[in-house]
Write a structure and sequence with these properties.
Aspartate Aminotransferase, domain 1; aminotransferase; alpha/beta; three-stranded antiparallel beta sheet; globular; seven-stranded mixed beta sheet; EC 2.6.1.-; Aspartate Aminotransferase, domain 2; 2 domains; pyridoxal phosphate; 395 residues; transferase
């Protein structure tokens, strides 16, 4: 029956993070003790003050369709957040609230790309970038990096990757999956290249902004010569432990924001009314309200790095943000371990699932075939046990 489906869906890859999580759930249902370190989801509950705002909204009978681009009160909260945290000045016409940051990204791709337009993706990149670009009939162009360069592209690499067909560059900082963070100086060096190509649009995915262990967060749109061509994508899923609430947003040039509003009006219309009211409260709160979660992630980062350093064959950098490590595991390629032939990162990730009962994600999904992604959005006990199992499976 596959031939009855569209070429569009038949050519689309399945999200590897969701696929691995589904496989882990299947094994758990069979009675196996699986430790899931594959999903990018905080293991905290949504803070009570946010939940209380949602309950209030329900009691106040928020139940109707919302404006396509978001409640005015939420847009104002986003504007104030951008000014407070990022020194970015937007007005209401530049803000669009969507059903998660993933929809925000899809909107941007659909309203900007024409068939054959190229989008530069510094590797590793978030698993859905390439498929979203292809769905919009664009061409993802991978720009490789490595563990030796902290998974950051250089200005020289950026310049070499640009062609007459380059329409956009997408990146995340803090990065999913590597955890690296671009400093303001590093972004300025990339901006100095991009200013020579004024038609290229920048998409800066800042969903992990507050989970940052190295200091101030930098945004590409802070630079005056980049502001009018940068789309800043953010949301509440990660820092506020609100993955299931599904609220993301953009700050963008007005013409892009209006186009996204038009696109969204024909796809989903406005985002969930109760979630939007809760997010107003989340964004108006001081960042100190969520600092306990960030401190916990920092402690877990130290734990997992220390334990990983005890495993021969893993090569990793210390992530500067988010809640992932992205070790290079290519030293295991070509080996047979406990009857498993390891040819690539996908084989290695499946080996860990089957032999160590630990779910990770292959780096192939992120544009880096030598690495795997391990989430440390899990308890210290789970992290310790997972690393113990991995070390034993590889011994």
């Amino acid at each position: 029956m596959q031939e009855k489906l569209s070429n569009r869906i038949n050519s689309m890859a399945t999200s590897q993070t969701l696929a691995m999580a589904a496989k882990a759930r299947e094994l758990k249902a069979e009675g196996k003790d699986i430790i899931g370190l594959s999903l990018g989801e905080p293991d905290f509950n949504t803070p009570d003050f946010i939940k209380e705002a949602a309950i209030t909204a329900i009691n106040e009978n928020y139940n109707s369709y919302t404006p396509v681009d978001g409640y005015v009160e939420l847009k104002d909260a986003i504007i104030n957040k951008f000014k407070r945290d990022n020194n970015l000045t937007y007005d209401r016409s530049q803000i669009v609230v969507s059903t998660g940051a993933k929809q925000s990204l899809a909107n941007v791709a659909m309203v900007i790309l024409n068939p054959g337009d190229e989008v530069l993706l510094p590797c590793p990149y978030w698993v859905s970038y390439a498929e979203i670009v292809k769905l919009a009939e664009g061409v993802p162009v991978e720009v490789p990096t490595s563990v030796e360069t902290d998974f950051k592209i250089t200005p020289e690499q950026l310049e070499a990757a640009i062609t007459p067909k380059t329409k956009m560059i997408w990146y995340s900082s803090p990065c999913n999956p590597s955890g690296m963070v671009y400093s303001k100086k590093e972004l300025r060096a990339l901006a100095d290249v991009l200013k020579k190509y004024p038609d290229i649009i920048i998409v800066s995915d800042e969903i992990y902004e507050h989970i940052n262990f190295v200091g101030d967060h930098a945004s590409m749109a802070e630079f005056e010569d980049m502001y009018d061509r940068t789309v800043t994508v953010n949301g509440v899923s990660k820092a506020f432990a609100m993955t299931g609430w599904r609220i993301g947003y953009i700050g963008a040039p007005t013409y892009i924001a209006r186009a996204c509003n038009k696109m969204q009006g024909q796809i989903t219309s406005g985002a969930n009314c109760i979630a939007q009211r809760a997010v107003i409260t989340a964004l108006e709160a001081p960042v100190s309200k969520i600092s306990h979660m960030i401190d916990t992630f920092k402690n877990r980062r130290k734990l997992i790095i220390d334990l990983m350093n005890e495993i021969d064959g893993f090569v990793t950098t210390e992530p500067e943000g988010a809640f992932y490590v992205f070790p290079n595991v290519s030293s295991f390629f070509g080996k047979t371990i406990k009857g498993h032939k390891i040819l690539n990162a996908t084989d290695f990730s499946l080996f860990l699932l089957e032999e160590a009962n630990v779910a990770t994600v292959t780096g192939d999904a992120f544009g880096n075939p030598e690495c795997i992604r391990i989430s440390y959005a899990a308890s210290e006990d789970q992290i310790t046990e997972a690393m113990k199992r991995i070390k034993k499976a590889l011994s």
